[in-house]
Specification:
This is ABC transporter substrate-binding protein. It holds the Pfam family Peripla_BP_4. It comes from Sedimentitalea todarodis. Belongs to the bacterial solute-binding protein 2 family. It is found in: Cell envelope. By secondary structure, the chain is of the alpha/beta class. Helix content is 38%, strand content 20%. It contains ten helices and twelve strands. The strands form two sheets. Strands 2-1-3-4-5-11 form a six-stranded parallel sheet, with helices on both faces. Helix 2 packs parallel to helix 3, helix 4 packs parallel to helix 5 and helix 6 crosses helix 7. The chain is elongated. It binds alpha-L-arabinofuranose.
């Protein structure tokens, strides 16, 4: 059901400038840095007096950052919730304080907090579809007979980790020649992806497909594979999600097969949706971002615009 502010959500008046909160979860990878920059880059043209925080990978700090923004009297909250459940109190407190909240890039547990009721809308990608598309590309391009798959999961309890796993695993479960032998979190971080891959390689030296829930972990996995004398791109197919500069370079270098896009450039979309809401227009509960797919066919032409 689409919603407008008249439906009982916190109102937002039309004005020239807004005090806007953007409560970032962490800044330890290029994706997060690009997302935060996108909000800063949009601020002036959208009339935002932007209060941006960095929770440094702590859901508890992210909740506290939102508390502090509420105390500072923000007009609007843009929140990328690090995990699905721990950030629900932040959504509820903003709701109780009468602050229209837009979830950015990740969502919260839909059984508890709902768009059109507790927050206005979720702006982001279809993570299940991203996982599905990686799986389908892998099935079409894997040259071996038996796929021995290691999966590097994102942050435990986050919507992209849950959904990217579901999308990929459900497709693979329909193919007898594909076996996921290990699935472990690398917390969406390069170094942890490398460490986890090193450990999993000991237990599963016959791995020939690595599916990472984001590019940073894929790059970490490539490092671990090379250190172990493996040849990513030749004897191991590495597939992933995001579309970072390093991933596109790895595709160009022949070390990675595919990355399905997950764009971090939310600033302009956030501005557009906020202004529509202030104008009383109807907002979809999920403003869905369309994602491209990067392979050897288009990585070179897209690398200059990558982050
Ligand atoms: O929520 C989107 C994910 O979060 C991106 O894929 C990942 O790189 C980031 O940390």
């Amino acid at each position: 059901v689409s919603v407008a502010q008249a439906d009982g959500l916190p109102p937002l008046e039309q004005k020239d400038t807004y005090t806007v909160g953007f409560a970032q979860m962490e800044s330890n990878n290029p994706w997060r840095i690009a997302e935060t920059k996108s909000f800063h880059d949009t601020a002036e043209s959208c009339g935002w007096n932007l209060i941006a925080t960095d929770a440094a990978g702590s859901a508890a700090k992210q909740v506290a950052d939102v508390d502090s923004m509420i105390a500072q009297g923000i007009d609007v909250l843009f929140l990328p919730p690090r995990e699905e459940k721990p950030l629900i109190p932040a959504v509820m407190k903003a709701r109780a304080a009468g602050i229209p909240t837009f979830l950015i890039d990740r969502s919260v547990d839909p059984a508890v907090a709902k768009p059109g009721e507790h927050f206005v809308s979720f702006l982001g990608s279809d993570f299940i579809d991203q996982g599905r598309r990686v799986a389908e590309w892998t099935l079409e391009n894997f040259e071996g007979e038996q796929g021995i798959i290691v999966e590097l999961e994102g942050t435990t309890g986050s919507s992209p980790a849950n959904d990217r796993r579901k999308g990929f695993d459900d497709v693979m479960a329909q193919h007898d020649n594909m076996t996921i032998v290990a699935s472990q979190t690398g917390d969406f971080a390069r170094d942890m992806g490398r460490q986890v891959m090193e450990t999993l390689l000991q237990a599963h030296p016959d791995v020939n497909i690595v599916y990472a829930h984001n590019d940073e972990m894929a790059i970490g996995a490539i490092q671990a594979l090379e250190l172990a004398g493996r040849k990513p791109g030749e004897d191991v197919l590495v597939v992933s999600i995001d579309g970072t500069r390093d991933a596109l370079q790895a595709i160009i270098d022949g070390k990675m097969g595919v990355t399905v896009e997950s764009s971090p450039f939310f600033g302009p979309l956030a501005c557009e949706v906020m202004n529509k809401y202030a104008a009383g227009e109807t907002i979809e509960p999920w403003v869905q971002v369309q994602d491209r797919i990067f392979t050897v066919d288009n990585a070179a032409e897209n690398i200059d615009a990558a982050y």
